[in-house]
Amino acid sequence: MEPSYSLQSHIFNDLAANAYRDINEWNPLNITHPPDLKYLDQDSKSAVGDGDPNSIDMLISQDCSGFNLGSFFVRRSSWTDRLLDVWWDPVHYEQRHMQWEHKEQDAFENLYIHQPWIRPRTAFYRQRTANSFPPGACGENDTRIHYDQKDRDFLINMAGCEWGRDCWGEMYHYRELSNYINRTPWEKFKDGIDSGFTTIFGSKEKTEEDARDGKDAVPAT
Question: How far apart are CA 83 and CA 77, in angstroms?
Answer without folding.
Answer: 10
